[in-house]
Amino acid sequence: MSEEQQDSIVDIETPTEITTNDTEYIGDKTQPTEEILNALNALNQTTAQNGHEQSPAQQGNVKQDTPSQEAPSEWHVLREKLREQPHDPDGWNKLVDLAEARGEIEQIKQTYEALLEVYPNTSSAQIAYLNHFLSPGLFPYAEELFRRFLRSSPLVDLWKFYLTYVRRVNTSPASREAVSKAYEFALSRIGQDKDSGDIWSDYIQFLKAGETTTTWEEQQKMDALRKVYHRAVQIPLENVERLWSELETFENSLNKITAKKFMSDLSPSYMQARTVLRQLQRHLGPLFPPPPASSSTRPHLYLPPTPTFNAAERALVGAWKTYLKWEESNPLEFEDKDKTTLISRIQGVYRKAAIRMRFYAEIWYMAFVWTNSMGKPEEALNILKSGMEANPTSFLLHFAYCELQESRKEHAEVTTTFDKFLDVLRAELDELENRINSANSSFTSDAPGRNVPTSAPTGNGLGSLEAGIISNTSSFATQASDEKPPKVKELSDRRQEYGVVWIMYIRFARRALDLKAFRSVFAKARRDRWTPWEVYEAAALMEYHCNKDGGTGVASRIFEKGLETYGDEIEFVLRYLGFLISVNDENNARALFERVITAFAPERARPLWERWARYEYQYGDLEAAQKLEKRIAEVYPSDPPIKRFAQRHTYLGTDAIAARDLGFAMAARQPAALGSTSTSNSIEKRTDSLLSLTSASHMLASQPPIKRASSPDYKRREGSARPDFGPPSKRQRPSSPPRDRDRERWEGPPRKRFGSPAGWERERDRELQHVKKDREDDKASTLPTVISWFVGQLPSPVSFDGPVFRTDDLMMLLRNAVIPSATRRATPPPTPLPPAPPAARTSGGRPPPDYGPYQGPGGGTRGGRRY
Amino acid sequence: MSAYTNEIQKKPVTVARHIMRGHTGWVRGIVHPPGGRRIITCSSDGSLRLWDLESGTQMGDNWRDKGDDGDDGDQVFAIALSPVGDVVASGSYDGTVRLWDIEKGKVITKWKGHTKRVRSLCWSSDGEQVVSGYHHGAVIVWDVKTEKSVLGPFETGHEHVLAVICSPDTTKIATGGFNEHAIKIWGTKTGELLSTIKHDSHVSSLAWTSNGKKLISGSQDGLIRIFHTATWQQIAILEGHQDVVLAISLCSNDRLLASASWDTTARLWNLETNLPVGPPPLQHQEFVECVAFSTDGKLLVTGSADHDAYLWDIHAILNDAGFQDLLSSPDKVYSAP
């Protein structure tokens, strides 16, 4: 039985889903249920016969739909509130308290059913629920609940509760067989759990208590006992040591010689189990902190909170991941012949994780990846489904699910999933917009309500799209700026992420379906008022790259169409311009530039000027170049002329004028300049002009020059290291005011992160640790050794091809940071920095850490290493 | 015995002088390089670490060596110090024996066994050979100069070779482990089984007195047994531990024995009387995995499953217990230590 049963142990599924027509499920559903039924029926014939037809959930729903006559009670008010905002652990606890205080059984049913719908498999709630039905008249209902709950429960306490019930209703000697089966069934499900030791022990006691009349029966009993003992003492159970000594006594009482043999054979596994138990306790300690004291007789129901990703929660999810990886590594060293036991053990662990960490998509994803790697694709798919149900806004789970379904050619399912996912995200955006609107009506006009494009781009000649080209999945808010409240920034970010879903949808349609499908998806996107410009660009580039037959023209038309909607978004305009340049369409590029350059105020238009100037300087004639320079001088009169001149004479970021004629290369080689004010004074004076010369886009013109000997990015300006062909990359877009933009850049997804999944994991964990550490170190001043090491590992500055940071923002960061005084070469200089301008403070503060690269002292040293 | 009980009443629980924290896995082995100021530990976290005994802090970085598969290094189950004390051998999960230069903390050479998981290691007293015992029951004798196996791998019949020790005259090797509750004695040259010394449970630790006359074993039942090597007759049983004795360490004068057990204690034994030295035992929070005396016997370090190593001032403990003379050499019993 065990092997079949192992296979039938499926998934982390909500009970509702168990009724889906999935083959794995049928296995899971029928067999165990039969087992339970056997156990229950054998003991309690009468109750089982008149079992309820109607499921408790249905009953609950019927009740709920009945309008209440009386004025809404506190319970009703709260229930309604929880319908709106279901993720509220305290609210649910309160609702249970209210229902139980009132003592009305239907209301109690409704309460628990509703709770378990939001938090499936919560054993504490299931037990509390069941406790209301443990008087003999109500047994049928209780059994129904047991059947429903046990099917997918990995939790020992529920199984223990079930077995207590089975023992209670099965007291006659004739029913021993059924009890024994119930134990076996429970142990096959949760017998690997370290907390199942009591069940093992109870089972052994139960077997010992069996009466025998013949020697043969006695022999059978001893064999059965031995088998159970032998299984138990190889599992890292909390009481494994006691079971071992019991077993020793037991064997010695039978036969001292065989005892020695048995104990000797079991020793290695037993010692391994004890070793693993210690490690297990260490892992699990922080994952299951003791519950808070309960005010009522019923224990507090632990319901997983919605993540806020604070330090404690990040540590918790990190600890879970470490633990899950450890379980996957097979610490008990099961051999291949016991692979099913290993798999069921890890399955149980993942099921528990998904209950406890229900709202962490990452955990579901790990469960999915592992299950899939075990060659159980159906089950893996179900994990994703359950995960999406718990986390309807998870990008990770939806993307993973869509990709899996795409690879299975379930295209209709992918389409449905994308549509549904977009619906959910759209509702989220609408809601966020409403909140902002009601909070501050002055921002409404600006934020999202851009006109829906009324006319679609020309439909003819649309080609296919390309998958991998879209690089701009990061969320740079093009419109957000310092003046806007954080909510608007949030809305802008959410919108950009929303765009990513459309782009993935388009990508799927292009590669899995056909042109028509791709275009109809894009047409849908165009009708969506939340669609950001990135979707247009992605679609245009897909046409360009994938449709060799006229795709360029279609792409231009898509850009042109986008311009109607996003004409005020400099990033989009820059992209369009870059595209035209890259396809060598000089006339249209020039026309576009002239058409849009007047539309932007000078402080926003600078990147456009720079982009166009780069083109003109490189490919135009001298007269045109000088003319353009003059125009620029008129728009930006405060730029030093020498800087403009130098700008015309750079290539791929090499600014020989700055480096040699203005002494940057020399200044950079003088380390003393930083530490001591006396020596740096002269250089500072010199660099005032240097800095203002190098790149005005590095600072706002109004800002005072930075007194700093050298800037790490003086050489590599915005985008200047890139060739003039090909659309500019995301990081070239300097549209929003620089400070804000750079702040985003700090927050942006780190580069080179997606090497391998494992590496990514590790790096991510490390980042989190760093961030945590960083937070802790905000006040302290020791540079962690790992950071020192890391700094030492950094490649030489010459090889740096990552994002270019603005000097003044970097300075701001350093100013606001507490810099350790350790005198490592790589450490940024501690003192002689001018006080921060007050304006800068407002935008200052550390960016939130989650996905960003490490931003602490080590981040600053990137520049510091140059000195 | 009454003398001891008097001592207990006077004395509070013995506390460690330093707790050396840093390992992130169980501390599996400890050696004392000459000089008495430093120790090296190994751990299932995959690292070796050097510690300053004066301050109880780690010196320098962790010693790690990449595994063949590019891992950060596997669990290190055992370490052994060369008789001269300049080289330490380590044995790890990937089956590799590594020799480390103690001053540099770098691997000098590594020898790949035929099988995974080195469980036990010892160094012959002449420094010419290293013996490694493996998880699956094999033993290999390595020649340090040629870096080749001179004997084995040969199967011991143990399931895990938990303990391996060379006789001081280098002619014999003793092994212990799961399967067969016994010490097995092997000829170093031929690998032939010379004797099997029966036990009631599996043998998990071994020590040979420097005069070669006594072989001492710790076993799963918590007992420590002493055998006469001429006859292989048991001459004493040291009772006290409640759980498997994972490691034993002899003071260089052969008069004092320390033992480490999963009963979370380490204990000291007077080998003149074969009685415990002044209870209470050295109490830990978790399993005690390994134990090692300093060369002069005045310090003892234990390693635990709680990831920490503990330094105990044996000199002071013995003074308090009235056993200070146990640290002196047998021929100088009356001179103060």
Automatic annotation (TrEMBL), chain A:
RNA-binding among keywords: no
Q: Keyword Repeat, does the record have it?
A: yes
Q: Which GO terms describe its biological process?
A: co-transcriptional mRNA 3'-end processing, cleavage and polyadenylation pathway
Q: Where is the composition biased (Gly residues)?
A: 855-867
Task: Give the start-end ranges of region Disordered.
Answer: 1-73, 697-779, 822-867
Locate the Suppressor of forked domain: which residues?
77-662
Extent of Polar residues compositional bias: 41-71
State a GO cellular component annotated for this protein: nucleus
- Source domain of life is Eukaryota
**What Gene Ontology molecular-function terms does this entry list?**
mRNA binding
Q: Where is the composition biased (Basic and acidic residues)?
A: 738-750, 760-779
List locations, semicolon-separated: Nucleus; Cytoplasm
Q: Which UniProt keywords apply?
A: Cytoplasm, mRNA processing, Nucleus, Repeat
Question: What is this protein's function?
Answer: Component of the cleavage factor IA (CFIA) complex, which is involved in the endonucleolytic cleavage during polyadenylation-dependent pre-mRNA 3'-end formation.
Record's protein name? mRNA 3'-end-processing protein RNA14
Automatic annotation (TrEMBL), chain B:
Keyword terms? Repeat, WD repeat
Q: CDD domains per the record?
A: WD40
UniProt WD repeat ranges: 20-61, 76-110, 111-152, 196-237, 238-273, 281-314
Q: Does the keyword Repeat apply?
A: yes
- PANTHER family to which the protein is assigned, alphabetical: TRANSCRIPTION INITIATION FACTOR TFIID (PTHR19879), TRANSCRIPTION INITIATION FACTOR TFIID SUBUNIT 5 (PTHR19879:SF9)
By what name is this protein known?
A: WD40 repeat-like protein
Q: Which organism is it from?
A: Suillus luteus UH-Slu-Lm8-n1
